[in-house]
Design brief:
The complex is a heterodimer of chains A (749) and B (148). Chain A is an all-alpha fold and 749 residues long. Among the domains of chain A are: 43 residues, no CATH class; 81 residues, Orthogonal Bundle (Recoverin, domain 1). In chain A, helix 27 crosses helix 29. The radius of gyration of chain A is 47 Å and the shape is rod-shaped. Chain A starts with a helix and ends in a 6-residue tail after the last helix. By secondary structure, chain B is of the alpha+beta class. In chain B, 38% of the residues lie in helices and 24% in strands. In chain B, strands 2-1-5-4-3 form a 5-stranded antiparallel sheet, sandwiched between helices. In chain B, helix 3 packs antiparallel against helix 4. Chain B contains 4 helices and 5 strands; from the N terminus they run ββααβββαα. Chain B has one domain: Beta-Lactamase (2-Layer Sandwich), CATH 3.30.450.70. The two termini of chain B are 14 Å apart. Chain B is globular, with a radius of gyration of 15 Å. Classes of the chains: A mainly alpha (749), B alpha+beta (148). Chains A and B meet through helix 13, helix 14 and helix 20 of A and helix 2 and helix 3 of B.
């Protein structure tokens, strides 16, 4: 930009920067900074150019120039529009300038600059304030405007000027070096380059002129600079102004400005949307789409800075960070010439000389960098208090922390589950309660997983599948197991963690009974009557020997029930009153059998029936109504019995289902049983004849009894084996179902 | 490392597309374009409301293909990801260098999604505009292949 400006203003032509050229250059700078195309005509046509934003190097130079300008401006009729600060505000500026010039180095001038220099920002509230470094007039005619011309421009000019008296003895007094140093260091684009150096002596403080279209806060920002503010620092006046603006939008200072309102507000500043977008990205620290007071101030500050020609930084300067908004030395402003004139002392102002430097709001990146080492003002120190306040805001400062707010969701369900599980569960409880809670704020995915697991658990409690609702003991354990399993991503045999109780059952009673059964089953595995009612509750295990039958019978069916989730109601009854139920069942069965077969052999029927039933349960289990294999295996002998057994047997479907599955599992074992079935068949085959022979004589009865006993033992053995297989199958089923649940996409989101 | 990252709007026009500048970018654009069909196919096949992030991730869209070996010496895989608002992210990765695991791809998509959300949150961004956010750019750059 500089070369263009130079070219435009004809300096090149002349080979030096004459006053007029300089004025033109400054005006062009302002034009450029305002975003208008750089053309000579624009100078004159655009009257409302904001004052060019120059990083004031030290006031000295500025003052020097200002003085020169001011003096020249008066004479520059043609440049009436060009007030020393190029984009002329017109009269006002001129007047002010002249005023300034008239009163060089009069502190009175201090007041002037502020208002006249107001850059003609249109919309009041939004219009960013053009912060202008205000040369303290002490330097005399420093046009308040930040006369920071392009660094290179300034430097030569400054030097030239320094030589010339612009009538400032004071200035001359100030050694050029300090400002020049600054300038040189800042040699930059106009916006960023010059720093107004303030005459220490004359300049009391650099005031940043803040153009405030709004009538609210003071236009002038006079900042008694505390010295080395970094370019992005917000002065008190600025901050106050921002706060007031914030209030106009959002009365509650602790509240938020929604994005849409902020958009409207900042759109008034007439910055390009892209830049506003970038400013938003920088200032919305917590990425919530709304601006807190600090964020708003930061955004406003950036807008003002931009308006004044400062480039936007790539990252938010520290001083603008929500918690540090006031008085922080900006870590590094990067490249932006902060438009927002921070009243920070123009960085480089000779420290020694500018204790009272008016705060030059314009700070330039270089300044910032150098200012880092500067002392912090008392204000800054006071800001530390604010720091602490805002720290909490910033806590989730890391925008990458996707989870700033703990996901509240699962707590409830997990809690509920927790409670359920705790109520029910024993061992695995501890894992459940803690894990969901702990993972609350962790990954969403994890949460999901846990959610799913928890839900799974809950589903277990509620649903049929795995819900070990039946038994309190079994449920929580089951749930816990499931949850634990899921957590550990181990879909491996759930039974590992599964408590002894069988898989959850639909009815609680079942569970209880099942648990009981399991115990019994385990204890009584061998030598028991077949009690093969694996799947059939009503299939009361045959009761060959009343003494034994009930027990084992009870066991078997109960065991079967326990093992099978599909236990029907009958199993419930049986478990609850095993003995009684069996007996009743036996009797019923016997009665039915008797009715079906031989009435006169009722006596034997009960005996036989138990046997048959013993076989029946096993057979019924197998005989999934469709499984002939099983029939052969088990009941085999008494087809009639089988049928009878099946009829009284309650939920055939369930057992059937189970059986189907177990059948599949057991199919390989079919062969094993074929032999047994053969034996059984043989044994059972003889049974039908038993009833008939019963009536013959006791010998026959005894023989039959013996045979039945043998059959019973055989069947018992078979039953135990089959039950073992069934258990295995069920375990596998459970594990598979768990895996399925795990694999199923979580749909709770 | 990704070789090309593209953000496609709901109406299937690109909101943002950026590739490693070495190879002919047109080919990448073409690949992204062709993968849109696959993405749509997967979307329609998925059925109803897919809210889960796992369902947002579409995975490998198309088996790796290598054009002329000279141009694409590496196997290029394309991965897709769709958001609930039907904004699609397509990423072409160079699988020859590193065997990128699925989780890594997912995490890259997650980062993309997060940055995209941040862009959306900006009130000055009009949905449908090209994404010009510098933060988004820097994030994508960090994911791209480091080409010397």
């Amino acid at each position: 930009m500089n070369p263009n400006i130079m070219q435009l203003c004809g300096a090149k032509r002349l080979g030096y920067f004459g006053r007029s050229q300089f004025y033109i250059a400054l005006k062009l700078v302002a034009v450029a900074q305002s975003g208008f195309p750089l053309r000579v005509e624009s100078i004159n046509t655009v009257k409302d150019l904001p004052l060019p934003r120059f990083v004031a190097s030290k006031n000295e130079q500025e003052s020097r120039h200002a003085a020169s300008y001011s003096s020249d401006s008066e004479n520059q009729g043609s440049y009436s529009g060009v007030i020393p600060p190029p984009p002329g505000r017109g009269q006002v500026k001129k007047g002010s300038i002249s005023h300034d010039t008239v009163q060089p180095r009069t502190s009175a001038d201090q007041q002037e600059p502020a208002s006249p220099v107001v850059s003609p920002q249109q919309s009041p509230p939004a219009s960013p304030h053009t912060w202008r470094k205000h040369n303290r007039h002490p330097s005399g005619g420093n046009s308040e405007r930040p006369l920071a011309g392009p660094g290179p421009f300034w430097a030569p000019f400054g030097e030239a000027q320094s030589g010339s008296s612009a009538g400032d003895a004071v200035w001359s007094g100030h050694s050029p070096p300090p400002p020049q140093e600054n300038w040189v260091s800042f040699a930059d684009t106009p916006p960023t380059s010059t720093l107004l150096t303030m005459h220490p002596a004359s300049v009391q403080d650099q005031t940043t002129v803040r153009t405030v279209a709004s009538a609210t806060t003071a236009n002038e920002i006079r900042r008694q600079s505390s010295s080395y503010d970094d370019p992005w620092k917000i002065t008190d006046e600025q901050r106050q102004y921002y706060v007031n603006q914030f209030k106009t939008i959002q009365p509650d200072l602790n509240g938020f400005i929604p994005g849409s309102a902020a958009k409207e507000f900042f759109t008034k500043s007439k910055l390009p949307i892209l830049e506003l977008s970038h400013i938003w990205e920088l200032s919305d620290f917590d990425k919530d789409g709304a601006l807190t007071l600090d964020e708003f101030c930061a955004a406003f500050h950036l807008v003002v800075a931009r308006k004044n020609g400062y480039d936007l930084p790539e990252k938010l300067p520290e001083s603008l960070m929500p918690k540090l908004i006031d008085l922080e030395d900006t870590a590094d402003v990067g490249d932006q010439p902060g438009e927002v004139g921070y009243s920070g002392s123009p960085a480089e102002a000779p420290p020694s000389k500018s204790p009272s430097m008016p705060s030059l709001n314009q700070t330039w990146p270089e300044l910032n960098q150098s200012s880092e080492q500067w002392e912090t003002f008392s204000e800054r120190s006071s800001s530390s208090q604010t720091l602490t306040q805002f720290d909490s805001n910033i806590a989730p400062a890391d925008p990458d922390t996707a989870i700033v707010h703990p996901v509240p969701i699962r707590m409830t369900p997990s809690k509920i589950h927790m409670q359920e599980m705790e109520l029910k569960r024993t061992g695995s409880d501890h894992t459940n309660p803690t894990s969901p809670l702990l993972v609350k704020t962790s990954d969403l995915s994890e949460e999901n997983k846990i959610n799913s697991s928890v839900k799974f658990a809950s589903g277990n409690t509620v649903a049929d599948g795995y819900s070990s609702s039946d038994s309190f003991t079994s449920d929580p354990e089951q749930i816990g197991n499931n949850v634990t399993r899921q957590r550990s991503h181990s879909g491996t045999s759930p039974d590992n963690t599964a408590p002894p109780p069988p898989p959850p059952r639909p009815q609680p009673s079942h569970s209880r009974s099942s648990s009981l059964d399991m115990n019994r089953t385990f204890s009584v595995t061998t030598g028991q009557q077949q009690a093969g009612v694996v799947a059939q509750p009503p299939a009361v295990p045959p009761r060959p020997q009343p003494s034994q039958a009930p027990g084992p019978v009870v066991h078997r069916p109960v065991d079967a029930d326990g093992l099978i989730t599909h236990t029907s109601t009958s199993p419930q009854q049986i478990p609850e009153q095993p003995n009684f139920a069996d007996f009743s069942q036996f009797e019923v069965f016997a009665a039915s059998n008797v009715n079906e077969e031989q009435d006169d052999e009722a006596e034997k029927h009960p005996e036989v029936l138990p046997v048959e039933k013993a076989s029946d349960p096993a057979s019924s289990l197998r005989v999934a109504k469709t499984d002939s294999k099983m029939e052969e295996k088990t009941a085999a002998s008494a087809p009639a019995n089988v049928s009878k057994g099946t009829t009284p047997l309650a939920p055939p479907p369930k057992p059937v289902r189970r059986r189907l599955k177990s059948e599949d599992e057991l199919r390989p074992e079919v062969d094993e049983h074929t032999q047994k079935t053969g034996v059984l068949a043989a044994v059972l085959a003889s049974q039908p004849s038993i009833p008939r022979s019963v009536g013959k004589d006791k010998k026959a009865i005894q023989a039959s009894i013996r045979r039945n006993k043998e059959t019973n033992t055989v069947l018992a053995r078979l039953n135990s084996e089959l039950q073992q297989q069934l258990k295995d199958v069920l375990e596998e089923r459970i594990s598979l179902e768990v895996q399925l649940e795990q694999l199923r996409p979580f749909s709770h989101l | 490392m990704a070789v090309c990252v593209a953000v496609i709007a709901k109406e299937n026009y690109p909101l943002y597309i950026r590739s490693v500048p070495t190879e002919s970018e047109l080919k990448f654009h073409y690949m992204v374009h062709t993968s849109l069909d696959v993405v749509d196919e997967k979307i329609s096949a998925m059925g109803k409301a897919l809210v889960d992030q796992r369902e947002l991730y579409l995975g490998l869209l198309y088996p790796t293909e290598d054009y002329k070996v000279s141009v694409f010496p590496n196997q290029l895989c394309r991965y897709g990801y769709v958001t609930n608002s039907k904004v699609k992210f397509v990423m072409v990765v160079d699988s020859s260098n590193t065997a990128l695991r699925d989780n890594e791809i997912r995490s890259m998509f997650r980062k993309l999604h997060n940055s995209y959300t941040d862009v959306m949150c900006n009130p000055f961004y009009n949905p449908g505009d090209r994404i010009q956010s510098r933060a988004f750019d820097s994030m994508v750059t960090s994911m791209m292949v480091q080409v010397c």
